[in-house]
Amino acid sequence: MPKFSLAKLLMKSSYCIVIPNYNHTQHIDGVLQSVADLSLPVIMVNDGSDTSTSHYLNQLPNNYPFLQVINLEQNSGKGGAVMAGFIEAHKQGYTHAIQVDADGQHNLKDIPNFISLSQNNPDAVICGIPDYDESVPLGRLIPRYITHFWVWVETLSFKIKDSMCGYRLYPLETTVALIQSTSIGQRMDFDTEILVKLYWQSVEIINFPTKVIYPEDGSSHFRMFKDNWLITKMHTKLFFGMLPRAPGLIARHFKKKSRPDSHWSATEERGSTLGIQILVWLYRIFGQWLFRVALNPVIAYFVLTGNKARRASYQYLRQINQYTGSSKKVRWYHVYKHFYQFGLAAVDKIRGWLGDVHLSDIVFHHADVFAQLRNNKSPQGAVFIGSHLGNLELCRAIGESDSSLKINALVFTKHALKFQKALEKFNPKASVNLIQVDTMGADTAIELKQKVEAGEIVIIVGDRTSVTQYGRVNYAPFLDQPAPFSQGPFILASLLECPTYLLFCLKQSGQYHLYLEPFADSLKLARTNKNEQLQSIITDYAKRLEHYCLKAPYQWFNFYNFWQKDDVNYIQRNTINTQEKNNRDNQ
């Protein structure tokens, strides 16, 4: 997320933090220190803690002036404490409250991100989606997935990705009205029940991935039998509450949105690092066959729940048929095959980074070009312009195994794949040559220039539009329809003033086919006809991308509306919206 002034962002709305606390002292100082620089008021609800804890908590405002402690005489449970905090916050005039646990599990650096999303969607609940590290007990994960299933049944939707994480931002007017008009569980059933009931009231749910840890010296107030019984009763009640609402819940899936489509960068990265690591372990222990078996239900889940990606797949495959003159209709199994190929590409990434892909598995097209690069005595490097076609990650892994080639990949920090983090556990070199950036600025250009001058290779993808700017595109024919291609990668390549190649890696007949085509000795743009040159370069790139897409149509993994106009009237960039709000506040 971009940097911004939190104080200015909060001017139009009033946010606070609510922390329920029952006998938690060991991490509470750390939690308060983490939020001290945010200039946010904090309401801590002392939920009937013992005498020594209560005394300790009530002394904390002396050290933290932004903190207010309210005391409940008797323990009412986590849910009861949170609801008491929300009601008090609403009485004091706050419009939104951020629920945070007192035990140090949550990554409080994400609070500005929660608020930024809330500013763009003021009536929505922003839900933290846990990205667990190795500290999470397995006994905590299994019940979560059981609850996920029941929540999907109770809402007839996959919109709620995780209903048990207690790290959320609530719009208080709607939430307090619900609390005061219906009965909601006061203990460990609270987080799930309130979210389902808010969804029933058509409150938008926005999911945001966030790190969650389990401190070694942490404590939990979860009561194995009592709370599991409460959760079971809650799901039973919610299931029967869903039945009369079912027609309305189903009808929501058919309502058309009138607002602009979201930009590709707003697409949530799905899956967790832990889940990917489990798949890597499956591959390492049992090989490809079990991995492929385990992949089927995973892919089925993503096909069923990924509405936007599924529609994009249909659109792309129809465009392929139209371009090739095929009269075949695109069926659901074609879309499943498209998703499944994406899953298989994950297998190939694992194989590449674990050293299981050998030169005998690779067919090098334009072998003389590869040989020339390996034997290049010049200190100058090169730029490879790739795409989301095939397996660019495999090219990077192969380059890492070739001591004569140092390959760097440029990725946007927000969308650097969780896959990368999982692979680091098994091969530390997996991220050594990742250059993570939020925007392409002068610092990035200078860093890349230094790498190219040192004889290294820089890979940039050319088939994604800018995360931060509208209109920095050129439209070029792609599968018979004009599509926006970002100017950024090609302008950056021109600034580096080095040989430029087009790179594609496709899986064909069980082998990896690497295509490295010379594109230009230098893409340096002349001042006189810069725009015409840039249009010609991007059109040539689109033609080659189209050529290779037709070789392996199921291996193009841009699961969004690629032909959407890059205009404020047609597409919504959350990053741009946040920046525009800040600019208005600065005026």
Question: Can you describe this structure in just a few lines?
Answer:
Keywords: Acyltransferase, Cell inner membrane, Cell membrane, Membrane, Transferase. The chain has 587 residues and is an alpha/beta fold.
Indicate the overall shape.
Answer: globular
- Percent strand equals 15-25%
pLDDT average, as an integer?
A: 80
Could you say how many structural domains there are in total?
2
State the distance separating the first and last CA atoms: 22 Å
Major sheet description: 7 strands, mixed
Descriptive account of the structure:
This protein has 587 residues and is an alpha/beta fold. It folds into 2 domains: 12-254, Spore Coat Polysaccharide Biosynthesis Protein SpsA, Chain A (Alpha-Beta Complex); 333-583, no CATH class. Helices cover 45% and strands 17% of the residues. The strands form 4 sheets. Strands 3-2-1-4-6-5-7 form a 7-stranded mixed beta sheet, sandwiched between helices. Strand 16 (500-508) and strand 17 form a beta hairpin. Helix 13 (332-353) runs parallel beside helix 15 (392-401). The longest helix has 28 residues, at 224-251. It is globular and about 80 Å long. The model is unreliable at 1-5, 7-12 and 575-587 (pLDDT under 50).
Features:
about 575 residues, Spore Coat Polysaccharide Biosynthesis Protein SpsA, Chain A, seven-stranded mixed beta sheet, 18 strands, disordered N terminus, disordered C terminus, cell inner membrane
